[in-house]
Amino acid sequence: MKIMLIGSGGREHALAWKLAQSDLVEEVVAIPGNPGIAREPKCRCLELSEHAAMAEFATAHGIDLTVVGPEGPLVEGIADLFRSRGLAIFGPGQAEAQLEGSKDFAKRFMMKHGAATARYQSFTDSVQAKDYVRTQSFPLVVKASGLCAGKGVIICQNEAQALEALAELMENHCFQEAGSTVVIEEFLTGPEVSILSLYDGENIHILGSAMDHKRAFDGDLGPNTGGMGTIAPAPFFSPAAQADFLENILKPTERGLKASGMKDPACIFFGLMLTPDGVKLLEYNMRFGDPETQSVLMVLESDLAQILDKAVHGQLTPADIQIADETALCVIGAAQGYPGVYAKGIPLKFNPSPDIKVFLAGATEQDGELRSSGGRIFGACARGSREEARSRIMDFLEQFRDQPIFWRRDIGGHK
Predict the structure, then answer these.
(1) CA-based nearest residue to 39, from 376, 393, 368, 381
(2) Splitting the chain (415 residues) into consecutive groups of 10 residues, what average pLDDT does each group show?
(3) For residue 386, what are the contacts with CB-CB under 8 A and spacing of at least 6?
(4) Quick one: which of 58, 236, 279, 327 could link to 63 by a disulfide (CB 3.0–4.6 Å)?
(5) Domains of the chain (ranges, CATH numbers)
(6) pTM of this prediction?
(7) 3-state secondary structure the chain
(8) Of 255, 274, 232, 246, nearest to 411 (Cα)?
(9) CA-to-CA distance for 288 and 270, rounded, in angstroms?
(10) pLDDT score, position 69
(11) Which among 344, 360, 361 is positioned nearest to 403, based on CA atoms?
């Protein structure tokens, strides 16, 4: 097989690494990829910016399967374009991608098909939205309906904060059109769990669970980020919680997809909260999560290329997905200042370790030297027992203690 992988972050590095391990795979072409992907066996990177050019490349070079990493191309309809040209692609078409691209659409889907979720109201008029929050109790959650790279969710402790959030989203347009519609939800409490699952057009198969750490600093302090690290499987996702999820979220979602005529193969990411009143669905992402993918793939024993190929052809079975009875951790090394204004151009040299896999995210290569280019620079990953994996990663990261790079030291440190 020849596989084309679209994206450039740590998630895509992990996908390329795992796909290339397959005996079925001859080559992985990442567009645009990153320096870490370029250094993996059987992988190369290529600069193409237009979706049509990607489809033309896939046709001309005999690409057997395309895998899409980020949400942007999916919401823009890249999968529909590929399928219209007879090209196999793993990723939802534009209609399905709206489950991530529009929180308003997703909430209406959840309510219509009976998936357990928080109470909400949607608004396109800021005056009406402000009138509504004046009648509510707090805390309250205000969300931009559109894509905001994980930054469009605001937890408001009081009325003044909610009014300010609405003004920023709907009047000052801090996220452009993404905030033209807002979703206002009840505030839920409890541990969060991410579920990565694979939809083959008929059934949803669980790939794995993970717990993300969104806050920048230890103890869940500091601003929200795109994710500072993950642990897989999620430590608080008990058998009882899984049974609740299957019955009240996964099955209604599966029924809703079929009823809506949504048959495109996709990774469905369920963002869950384990509340005192049961498991609740916070959001859908219609692609592999980042950095959840890094830790989940570390413990995936099965052939990922074969799994995705079977999903595309509607042949996936639960037996195709085998997970190691171990724990995997991914800890993000981020540039000082992230998620605000952060340092760039930091020289990157990694002391090799047989126990650590590094997935590059915000990094470039100049004259053979790696330098940081993004806020989240890399993910250091390890598997084994939770204590072993955490100890190995913390020891590995000490090599960066004198550089403008920071990381959370409490990931995997729970009892």
Answers:
(1) 368
(2) 98 98 98 97 96 98 97 95 98 95 93 96 93 93 81 88 92 86 93 97 96 95 93 96 98 97 96 97 95 98 98 95 97 97 95 95 93 97 97 97 97 80
(3) 231, 235, 327, 329, 412
(4) 58
(5) 2-93 (3.40.50.20), 119-186 (3.30.1490.20), 192-320 (3.30.470.20), 327-406 (3.90.600.10)
(6) 0.94
(7) CEEEEEECCHHHHHHHHHHHCCCCCCEEEEEECCHHHHCCCCEEECCCCCHHHHHHHHHHCCCCEEEECCHHHHHCCHHHHHHHCCCCEECCCHHHHHHHHCHHHHHHHHHHHCCCECCEEEECCHHHHHHHHCCCCCCEEEEECCCCCCCCEEEECCHHHHHHHHHHHHHCCCCHHHHCCEEEEECCCCCEEEEEEEECCCCEEEEEEEEECCEEEHHHEEEECCCCEEEECCCCCCHHHHHHHHHHHHHHHHHHHHHCCCCCCEEEEEEEEEECCEEEEEEEECCCCCCHHHHHHHCECCCHHHHHHHHHCCCCCHHHCCECCCEEEEEEEEECCCCCCCCCCCEECCCCCCCCEEEECCEEEECCEEEECCCEEEEEEEEECHHHHHHHHHHHHHHHCCCCEECCCCCCCCC
(8) 232
(9) 10
(10) 96
(11) 344
For 46, the token pair is: 């290529």
Bridge partners, residue 267, by sequence: 198
Enter the tokens of residue 110.
């959840």
Residue type, 81: L
First to last CA, the chain: 44
- How many residues are recorded in the chain? 415
Q: Which residue has the tokens 């769990």?
A: 193
Tokens of 309: 């190929």
